[in-house]
Design brief:
The complex is a heterodimer of chains A (111) and B (116). With 111 residues, chain A is mainly β. Chain A contains no helices and eleven strands. The chains are: A mainly beta (111), B mainly beta (116).
């Protein structure tokens, strides 16, 4: 089955700086890679996703890149704000159409 | 569009009792729904895939007789935790996928279960 690795477990940045979160996956048949933001006690919120037929996607301050050869994908947040502080999960949709989640990273944006 | 609700949002029960959690897709039809469990400071772990009109598919290590899943309509799936024990205390989250879609899942708000 799919295995998604997400490192590190925590990331702290100064407000206004950029944050980059990286994930790797194992199943070459995976074709859909969403990123979720989860605040404490709340549901995961889809912030951006990318499919395997594109290499990059951008939505305002958020972008995702995908390298299928290396089997890794990254989330880029520019001009970070304190409200960006949350837990971020990457996920991959394998051949079985199930989402496998990474362990999550706690992003802290210092004012 | 693509709103998923869950009920109840919180439940506290005594050990040995059963608890039912409902997951509804409010504005779309969902042939497939998923049930996840999330322990504090951990990731979402898929428990089972719920398919409308057929038996659920359980992940390895998840007891199907303990976590009963029913997906009787295209907008409702239920998870019943039978004979709950304190170790079943967790955050249970469902998600739904539009009928005909292959990937994107829409998540419910979750149910916090506490077993005393």
């Amino acid at each position: 089955g799919e295995n998604v690795e997400q490192h590190p477990s925590t990331l702290s940045v100064q407000e206004g700086d950029s944050a980059v979160i990286k994930c790797t996956y194992s199943d070459s048949a995976s074709n859909y890679f969403p990123w979720y933001k989860q605040e404490l006690g709340k549901r995961p919120q889809l912030i951006i996703d990318i499919r395997s037929n594109v290499g990059e996607k951008k939505d305002q301050r958020i972008a995702v890149t995908l390298n299928k050869t290396a089997k890794h994908f990254s989330l880029h947040i520019t001009e970070t704000q304190p409200e960006d502080s949350a837990v971020y999960f990457c996920a991959a949709n394998g051949a079985n159409s199930k989402l496998t989640f990474g362990k999550g990273i706690t992003l802290s944006v210092r004012p | 569009g693509a709103v998923v609700s869950q009920h109840p949002s919180r439940v506290i029960c005594k050990s040995g009792t059963s608890v039912k959690i409902e997951c509804r897709s409010l504005d779309f039809q969902a042939t497939t729904m998923f049930w996840y469990r999330q322990f504090p400071k951990q990731s979402l772990m898929l428990m089972a895939t719920s398919n409308e009109g057929s038996k659920a598919t359980y992940e390895q290590g998840v007891e199907k007789d303990k976590f009963l899943i029913n997906h009787a309509s295209l907008t409702l799936s239920t998870l019943t935790v039978t004979s709950a024990h304190p170790e079943d205390s967790s955050f249970y989250i469902c998600s739904a996928r539009r009928s005909g879609a292959k990937a994107e899942q829409f998540f419910g708000p979750g149910t916090r279960l506490t077993v005393l």
